[in-house]
Amino acid sequence: MNKKVPKVSVILPSLNVAEYIEACMESVVHQTLQDLEMICVDAGSTDGTREILERYAREDSRIVVLHSDTKSYGRQVNMGLDRATGEYVAILETDDWIEPDMYQYLYDNGAAESLDYVASDFDLLYRLQNGADYLIRQRLFHGDKQDWYGRILDSDEIATLRSADYVLWKGLYRREFLNSHHIRLHPSPGAAFQDMGFLQQVKTYAKQAKYLDKSFYRYRQDREEASSKGLDGLRYYENEFRWINGELRLCHLLNPIHRKYYYFAMSISFITKYDQILVKLNGDWQDKRLADSCEWFSRQISEAVRIGLLDKAMYGNELWERLMLLLASQEAYSQLVMEQEKGKQDGLQKLLGRIKNRPVMIFGCGIRGERLMFYCDSNHIKIHSFCDNNLALFGKEKCGFPILSPSDLKNEADSKDGVILLSMKIGQEEVYRQLIATGIEDDRIIQCHTKAEI
Questions:
Q1: I want to staple 49 with a disulfide (CB 3.0 to 4.6 A). Which of 45, 85, 194, 439 is the partner?
Q2: What phi and psi values does residue 216 have, to the nearest 5 degrees?
């Protein structure tokens, strides 16, 4: 008798994530879609991760634990793909977690029309200073492309997403589709950016896909040891694109629109990661972790520009000019980036100078207030509370912080020696006069507009 095929195979690669693995496993075990198999592939954890996974496997027959002899994220996922038997395949990072209905919702949409893949949005997950989780939705479609949500996209439309859709774990992939095109990850040492090669293959071969206007995946941002935060990111990207161009020879298969957006994805990966590492290196553009890979990327992208694959219309003026400067002179580009970084740091120091280590109370509970709260939290500024003129909010919480009424603000500011940050763009002068009228001292009120102005 043939064994029943599960609807979804979930591949969970792990390496020393004992602090997070139980939350991850619980989020999969308790999915509303129970017709799953879970393939855990550990790469030699020494912190108890493997033992936790084996305990879950003893308690749930849907779980199997495999052991990789090499520390390679690509190798781990490939082992899972080779073992998988489900109609669709999911990959889940084991320091993250998912909402209970993620796989049911994605499967129902994908299987109904045998889509090659189906995906949704995701949220960046931050742990705030008060212990609350803070989510920032990462929307794929904006503006005139909002109606792409829920549509079945064809190959040419999928091509335009080669750069924007850059993570593999927010979707399901039809296993037969992956196997028929021999789609696997690059089994290189390390664990960063190997989803790039996978997704470029998926975009090359997929004929039909759908993106849903939902967010189920919680992508943890507070794990400092994550390899994506290291200084070798540009080299990892170079390895991926060399593999795509060389061993896979993928770019030779691409029609004009796919080829155009393939090089666009390469250029965006290049400049984004270059900026991140350059700032961490305090502008040392000659560091080998930048310079060697920069030379390779510059050759590829310059040739794409020369033959007309890339042009200003794809980027917008500012990003195009930055890219052209980077291709022309790493030294000049470094000066530009570090001047901008200095402006940000000067703004932060100016704000810190006015706050003087006092707790802050953020006036305004809208999106600007929320962004200001996150800016303060990210820069280790102690947050006491929010305040708002909306009577319906008094006594409630925002992001785990209490919301005060304006009438309570003076007493709290006095007793806690706090300062008030005004977050709103419109009506700031009126609120300033309102607070002065309640007796709050001028030096306790700081007018902020946008993060860039702080």
A1: 45
A2: -120, -25
